[in-house]
Structure formats: C-alpha cells, structure tokens
What does this fold into?
Amino acid sequence: PEAITVAELANRMTERVGDVVKALMQNGVMATQNQTIDADTAELIIEEFGHTVTRVSDADVEQVIEQVEDNPEDLKDRAPIITVMGHVDHGKTSLLDAIRNAKVTQGEAGGITQHIGAYQVQTEGGTTLTFLDTPGHAAFTSMRSRGAQVTDIVILVVAADDAVMPQTIEAINHAKAAEVPMIVAINKCDKPDANPTKVRTDLLQHEVVVEEMSGDVQDVEVSAKSGKGLDELLEAIALQSEILELKANPDRAAQGAVIEAKLDVGRGPVATVLVQNGTLRQGDIFVVGEQWGKVRAMENDQGARVKEAGPSVPVEVLGLNGTPEAGDVLNVVSTEAQAREIAEYRQQVAKDKRAAAGAATTLEALMQKA
Ligand code: GDP
Ligand code: MG
It folds into this structure.
C-alpha cells in the first residue's frame, strides 16, 4: 500500500499545507504535515480539492519502460564489457593503464588522460573491448544485488609475487555468483621473485582450474610494467568474447547502467553510463534510478563530444535533474511527464521504505526499553 506525507500531498497539489490539514480534520483524520496518510485518504482529499488522481504503480512503470524482447534478427554483435578485479596492489590500475596506453596511437606521449571510469580499445584482430575501471567494482556489486549485470568477463589479476589473497577470493566468489567467466592475469611476472606456478596451485584450492593445470579458465602471464603478455591477454579476452556471442539491438530506446556519478560544480549532476541495449542519443528523455533527465550532451572515453552511443559504449551524460547512484539503471522514455512521474514515484517508494525501516527501529527500541 502506498502512502504520502501531508506536506508532500500539499506540495503535489500546490495547495497550502494548512488547508490540507484542515481538510483532513474535516474528514476525521488528525495529521500534522510530517505524518503519513494512506493512499485512499490521499485520494479523498485530492478529489475534495478538485484535482484528478493519478496513481503511478510498479505496473505503470513497467509499461512505460518497455521490456519487450528483441527479435533475434535485430540483434547485432556488441563489444564485451570487462571488469578487472583482484587484491589491492596486485596491479589492476596498472594493467588497465598499460592496456590503454599500449593501444593509444603513437605521438600521444605519456599516454592519454582518463576521462571516465571506462574505456574502449581495439585488439590487433579488430575486436572492440570495453573496460570498466576499478570503481566499476562498486557498480558491479550494487547491480548484482539488484539482479542486473554490467560485466561479461572478469579479469582476475593476481600478483605473481604474492599469489592468492583475501580480495582475490572475494573476486572469485563475485564472478562465480554472477556466473561471469574469468580470465586469470598473472601479473608482475617481471619481478625476480615472481612465482606463477604458486598462483595456479593456490587457485586450485578455490576451484579455479586454469588451462596450464588442464582446466578451462584461460590464464596469461603478464607484466603491467614491461608490457609482457598484454597482447596475449587481449586475445584471450577476444576468444572468450567470441564464445559468449554477445549481442544487442542498437535500434531501440536505450537502456544502460550507471558506472559512476557525481555532482560537478560547473556542470551539475554527471553520470558515466554504459549503454547495454539500444542507442542513447542527445535529446533523449530518461529515468535513471530515482532521477530523470534529458541528454544535454555526451562525451566519450576520449573526452570528445558524441551525439549517440550504442550498445557497450560508455559515455558521460549531462542533463540530469539529480545525481543517480552507481548501479542505477537508465531507461529512455517518451515524455518528460513520464520521466518525472516515474522518478517521483521511485523517490516516494524509497522514502516510504526508509520511513518504515525507521519506524521499525523506533518500535524495537521501545520494546527493548519496556
Ligand atoms: P591495484 O591496487 O590493484 O590497482 O594496483 P596498482 O596498479 O596500483 O599497483 C600496485 C603497485 O604495484 C604499484 O606500485 C605498481 O607500480 C606496481 N605494479 C603493478 N603492476 C606491476 C608489474 O607488472 N610489475 C611490477 N614490478 N610492479 C607492478
Ligand atoms: Mg587501483
């Protein structure tokens, strides 16, 4: 059952709170502005004030956000989305940097600066790969808890001079729970005390059997420092990607996931969105979690303005009315009214949930005292 505070109800009707409190009183309901009234009472009051009632429900939201299955003939190949995971200091950031810089055209001395928490590279074989930076971790975890998926392949980075550590095990569990295939990158192989064999045998204890041990998990010896094995790693990813046969429909309203979001002093709320299906275009109206917006501008991973972004493409999106959270799902809708309504509905649901949790805590506290 939905509920609304008296103040919020007054706000939505653009009526004075005092008048609403009075109207409630006349109907035998005593409530102050911060108190919650049920949907039926709210409806009664709305009608009394001569407004029409439009109740948004989960069903309405689902209807607006069309979840139609794509026709198989509309599906096109898309780039795999790769998340790098592993224990702290095992070289996740270094490896991502090394891959990016190795693939940057000559002449850009010192490599390129990273603009957003994701980037795309092309392998020698011509496959495009989308990498999520380590902050992608947060999105990965929060999306998984909501049943969504932002990753196709996990690169498990294990330092050859340190072997399997607690966060390595965590990453393995994540990948297994999400049923995402893993590729093991045995890093720091340039080091004199590197022991790749220990990494492989350690992994056995966690039911990760790499190819070198006659298993089916690809493993590649790399060094983010010297660049050794990077091409092999990219080829391993391309191979894994081929097996997965990843496809999406570029010709539909976009759906994506927020990788990271922040409130920028100059530009307002900014979100890095990974498009998962459809094509996101400048001018598109969307809802994203409890926020909504209209795409004012988009920048790609190189910091260049783009007018559209298709499946597996990460873009920075401007034009949001609020700051969403990592892991929030973005859906393009037809009208601003729909977008606003869905966002407000979700905000209300979230608020009610918090209020209910708060009430439960208070009740618990009272019971304990008694
Ligand atoms: P992260 O915490 O997993 O992101 O690890 P970083 O990329 O920040 O690397 C941690 C440290 O290991 C840094 O001092 C890196 O310079 C170093 N490092 C990373 N990769 C290599 C490598 O392949 N060889 C060597 N010798 N050092 C590395
Ligand atoms: Mg790092």
User: Anything to note?
Assistant: Residues 105-111 have pLDDT under 50 and may be disordered. The pocket of guanosine-5'-diphosphate (ligand 1) is lined by residues 86, 88-94, 134, 187-188, 190-191, 223-225 (CB under 6 Å). The radius of gyration is 25 Å.
